[in-house]
Write a structure and sequence with these properties.
Strand content: 25-35%
Strand order of the largest sheet: 20-29-28-27-23-26
Helix content: 10-25%
Oligomer: single chain
Distance between the termini: 63 Å
Length: 549
């Protein structure tokens, strides 16, 4: 059965896309997971993966052409199949299956597990919304917060919900107007991309038959209905509160502090408000929300005055003496993604490590002089990142990627910087690092680290690294070994600066030593190559003026 593939929504602000390059041509056989094309969005050029199998029957947009999200991109089906009815928009044609996480279809939907060829037609006055694919590696998502509830009027551009992906928590915006008729996933529940998320349409419309034609594939933690999955539903980039936020009364004259929370205890606040609160060090639990349903918005943070009047003491769970006690915590999408990536790296790469001591005396003196300049702030990590970028130019073998049939040499240098956040670890990327100054690197690392902690990094800002730096020196760690961030061939682990005796000009003196460890993939990097890279890195860091020349 032929399936329509539409222009995907690959970023939270994307409204249209450009086909940068087709990687398949009409007549080619398509397997699930094949990269069909490269799509240029408003933020980056990203690979577009097929979720279907068959033959590429039709290409709707040529390379360089632009079209809005949900426009016809391609058709996949059986070899030689007649797809003219789909092109003509024939409502009797088989339902077009959305290949992306952002497609809304109103075709026929087969009823779940019906032995006869019974079908349920989606009424023209409703739109089915499915779990969007908000990052290039996202396979399932979790509804963090619904910002709308059943019965609410939805206007195009409204934020329906916040969706937790493997990389960040992102707002999901509605592309449709109407009344929220049905919510398929409750807050905290997880489902694969293209699972039924919600239904929007004309108030009072019966959607029972439509719901029965879709599956939410055992949403976690409360199982939902499990009819046959049909991805002819559409995807948006937002979500909607199935549970009304516990609205709080306006603050009294005594300015009593009252946390506005949803029924499951989650504080409801806009991402911008969360970021601003993090920046100002404000506890959201103390802020009274004035937004819809008691939601905390930007102005609430800007106007907040801290008055310490607690509603109730914090509850601390302690294990009774002599009794076994445990707590189960649901694994986040980010933690699952980290586990998959680390497991893949450990089982495929042939790792070896080498280490070196670097004398930081000159680096410390140079940093002091640089930071004495007005409006300038450079960290030791910024110096390491810059030195790595310059050393990679002299040792291109380190800047490679291994594939089964070839080794890819990256001529550009983009260093990823590992950042620890509450839920795990992310690696924001500094594009074209070698062309940037120390202050530019420092500003970009600081900006992206703040975004990471607020879960506002976009997929584009975490993609495209050719080398990675991980620094635990600020935690008092002397030395450690990192797991390679594939497809990179190497990662540098940076320890703290410690004073220790060294021999200098025949005398024992106190030196400031920093230990670094380079983990390499032996498939692309040999020991001598890794050692040569570390020696060049050492020269740059021990003589910072060479990085400024």
């Amino acid at each position: 059965m032929a399936q329509i593939i539409t222009m995907p929504r690959l970023s939270d602000t994307m409204t249209e896309g450009v086909v940068a390059q087709w990687l398949k041509k009409v007549g080619d056989k398509i397997e699930e997971g094949d990269i069909l094309a490269e799509i240029e969005t408003d933020k980056a050029t990203m690979e577009f993966e097929s979720f279907n199998e068959g033959f590429l029957l039709h290409i709707g947009l040529q390379e360089g052409e632009t079209a809005p999200v949900d426009a016809l991109l391609a058709i996949i089906g059986e070899e030689g199949e007649d797809f003219s009815a789909l092109l003509a928009g024939d409502a009797a044609a088989p339902a077009a299956e959305a290949a992306s996480s952002e497609t809304v279809k109103k075709e026929e939907v087969p009823v779940a597990a019906a032995p006869a060829a019974k079908t349920t037609t989606i009424p023209e006055n409703i739109t089915v919304v499915t779990m969007p694919r908000l990052s290039d590696t996202m396979t399932d998502g979790t509804v963090a917060t619904w910002l709308k509830k059943v019965g609410d009027v939805v206007v195009e551009g409204d934020i329906l919900a916040e969706i937790e992906t493997d990389k960040a928590t992102m707002e999901f915006e509605s592309f449709n107007e109407g009344t929220l008729l049905y919510i398929g996933l409750q807050e905290g529940e997880t489902a694969p991309v293209d699972s039924l998320l919600a239904i929007i349409g004309e108030s009072g419309t019966d959607v029972t038959d439509v719901v029965s034609s879709f599956t939410t594939e055992a949403a976690t933690p409360a199982p939902k209905e499990t009819p046959k999955k049909d991805t002819s539903a559409a995807t948006e980039t937002a979500a909607t509160p199935s549970k009304p936020a516990a609205s709080s009364p306006a603050p009294s004259a005594a300015k009593k502090v009252s946390a506005i929370q949803s029924e499951n205890g989650r504080i409801i606040a806009s991402p911008l408000a969360k970021a601003l609160a993090e920046e100002k060090g404000i506890n959201l639990a103390k802020v009274v929300g004035t937004g819809e349903g008691g939601r905390i918005i930007k102005t609430d943070i800007e106007n907040f005055t801290d008055v310490i009047v607690a509603d109730a003491p914090a509850v601390t769970v302690t294990a009774p003496i002599g009794e076994v006690s445990k707590t189960e915590v649901k694994n986040s999408q980010m933690r699952k993604a980290i586990v998959r990536a680390l497991d893949n790296s450990q089982t495929t790469a042939v790792n070896f490590t080498i280490g070196m001591d670097i004398n930081m005396d000159n680096a410390m003196a140079s940093r002091k002089e640089i930071n004495a300049l007005p409006d300038t702030k450079v960290s030791f990590n910024d110096m390491v990142v810059k030195a790595c970028a310059m050393a990679l130019k002299k040792h291109p073998q380190i800047n490679t990627e291994w594939t089964d049939d070839k080794t890819i040499y990256n001529h550009h240098i983009s260093v990823g910087v590992a950042v620890a956040i509450e839920d795990g670890l992310v690696v924001p990327v500094i594009p074209f690092t070698d062309s940037k100054s120390l202050t530019e690197i420092g500003a970009e690392v600081k900006d992206k680290a703040m975004k990471a902690k607020n879960k506002k990094l976009t997929p584009a800002e975490m993609s495209g690294s050719t080398f990675t730096v991980s620094n635990l020196g600020m935690f008092g760690v002397t030395e450690f070994t990192s797991i390679i961030n594939q497809p990179n061939s190497a990662i540098l682990s940076v320890g703290g600066i410690n004073q220790q005796p060294i021999v200098k000009d025949g005398q024992i003196v106190v030196g400031n030593i920093m230990k670094v460890t380079l983990a390499c993939d032996h498939r692309t990097i040999d020991g001598a190559v890794g050692a040569a890279f570390l020696n060049t890195l050492k020269q740059y860091i021990e003589n910072p003026v060479t990085m400024l020349a």
